[in-house]
């Protein structure tokens, strides 16, 4: 899917860290819980048991990490996993299945499924399948949720995002700009939890914008993903590029956005990169939050900047979204930062650091960003049977 080779190696390393985390913590997560019952002479225990076969559907943008994030915790609990990779990255699914088989999973505990979307409906309907975990678009997540509901199957959905990145007037701008760049450009800006709406206090807006543009100029190296100097590869497909170009054009023509940095034709200035799925970074300003395109997810290297006059206005704009995956707030006033983080209607809020998903904390969203949680103990226990056993002595 065009991921730069250095970032691809980093993705594999993150998979290894996921394994290490659950090797060290799974036993504690699965320990039985003793109930504090009000009745005399009665004891109770909560035990955690597997549900059975689980269908896991993942997209192309993190073709190793997302299967590990979704599959390893429920597999540890004792569920079997059927993985459906994206049709854009089928060889990654095959490679993972071979790795699991080499590791000793040879009795169907982990299977790679080369199936279509319609065949997924049949799989979900099968009585042997007990749940589905889906990572991808909100449109796809709604379809999966409907299928699961029809057959009374549990679902865990991590869907799209339009994550706010809020910079208040007393923020450390050097730290904020560095984090803004990283948070937007990870994976060539193709991640659900990338920062996408940059909401900046008017007091520091111009300086933040100018520093951000300089950061992009000095840091972004667009090119061959197999070149170790490249840190921004092509988009995953020509279709993804066409969607992004069309969104940017509507942002300008219908949303009133102005292009501060980047090509008005959304092509790279280097003739060698004009063809194919390469997309040069773009900075846009002043897009109307009342426009239809404002509410869409831009899946690529587009920075949308918004100027606000107060922290209240910043929070109101940050929450003006149908999505609720994650968000970040930058300010040196930690009391204000905590209040803002509490106000953000998202699944994960970050203070003075860029958004990220790690094994050691729950991840997931609300609203159109889905429901359910992965990673931490939630990833292991969310798709399971939390059984209560009551004993009369």
Structure description:
The structure is a single chain. By secondary structure, the chain is an alpha/beta fold. The chain folds into two domains: 5-159 and 369-392, Aldehyde Dehydrogenase, Chain A, domain 1 (3-Layer(aba) Sandwich), CATH 3.40.605; 163-351, Aldehyde Dehydrogenase, Chain A, domain 2 (3-Layer(aba) Sandwich), CATH 3.40.309.10. The protein is built from eleven helices and 18 strands. The chain has helices at 5-29, 65-77, 90-102, 117-125, 138-150, 173-185, 205-219, 238-253, 311-318, 334-343, 376-381, and strands spanning 33-34, 42-49, 54-57, 81-84, 110-112, 131-135, 154-158, 163-167, 195-201, 258-261, 282-285, 302-308, 323-324, 326-330, 348-351, 366-367, 370-371, 385-392. The chain has a seven-stranded mixed β-sheet, sandwiched between helices. A six-stranded mixed β-sheet has the order 5-4-3-6-7-17, sandwiched between helices. Helix 1 runs parallel beside helix 2. The termini are far apart. The mean pLDDT is 94.
Q: Which CATH architecture of the largest domain is right? A: 3-Layer(aba) Sandwich
Number of DSSP-assigned strands: 18
For the residues shown, what is the average pLDDT?
94
Major sheet attributes: 7 strands, mixed
Number of domains: 2
Percent of sequence in beta strands: 15-25%
Strand arrangement in the largest pleated sheet: 10-11-12-9-8-14-15
Q: What is the alpha-carbon Rg in Å? A: 22 Å
The CATH superfamily of the largest domain is known as Aldehyde Dehydrogenase, Chain A, domain 2
């Amino acid at each position: 899917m065009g991921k730069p080779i250095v970032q691809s190696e980093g993705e594999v390393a993150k998979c290894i860290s996921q394994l290490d985390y659950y090797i060290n913590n799974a036993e504690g997560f699965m320990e039985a819980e003793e109930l504090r019952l009000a009745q005399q002479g009665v004891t109770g225990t909560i035990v955690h048991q597997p549900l059975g076969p689980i269908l896991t559907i993942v997209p192309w943008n993190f073709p190793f990490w997302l299967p590990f994030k979704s599959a390893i915790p429920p597999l540890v609990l004792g569920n079997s996993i059927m993985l459906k990779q994206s049709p854009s990255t089928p060889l990654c699914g095959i490679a993972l299945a071979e790795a699991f088989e080499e590791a000793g999973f040879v009795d169907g505990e982990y299977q790679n499924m080369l199936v279509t979307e319609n065949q997924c409906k049949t799989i979900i309907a099968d009585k042997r399948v007990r749940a589905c975990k889906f990572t991808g678009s909100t449109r796809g997540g709604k379809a999966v949720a409907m299928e699961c509901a029809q057959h009374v199957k549990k679902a865990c959905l991590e869907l799209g995002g339009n994550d706010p990145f809020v910079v208040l007037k007393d923020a450390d701008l050097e730290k904020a700009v560095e984090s803004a760049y990283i948070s937007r450009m990870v994976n060539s800006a193709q991640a659900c939890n990338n920062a996408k709406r940059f909401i900046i206090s008017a007091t520091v807006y111009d300086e933040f914008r100018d520093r951000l543009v300089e950061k992009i100029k000095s840091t972004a190296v667009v090119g061959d993903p197999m070149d170790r100097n490249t840190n921004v590869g092509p988009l995953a497909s020509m279709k993804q590029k066409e969607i992004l170009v069309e969104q940017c054009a509507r942002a300008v023509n219908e949303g009133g956005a102005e292009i501060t940095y980047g090509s008005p034709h959304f092509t790279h200035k280097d003739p060698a990169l004009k063809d194919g799925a390469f997309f040069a970074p773009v900075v846009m300003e002043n897009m109307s939050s009342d426009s239809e395109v404002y509410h869409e997810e831009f899946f690529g290297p587009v920075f949308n900047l918004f100027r606000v006059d107060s922290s209240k206005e910043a929070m109101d704009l940050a929450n003006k979204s149908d999505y609720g995956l994650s968000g970040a707030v930058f300010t040196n006033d930690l009391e204000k930062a905590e209040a803002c983080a509490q106000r953000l209607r998202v699944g994960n809020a970050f203070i003075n650091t860029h958004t990220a998903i790690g094994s050691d904390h729950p991840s997931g969203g609300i609203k159109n960003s889905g429901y359910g949680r992965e990673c931490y103990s939630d990833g292991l226990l969310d798709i399971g049977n939390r059984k209560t056993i009551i004993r009369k002595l």
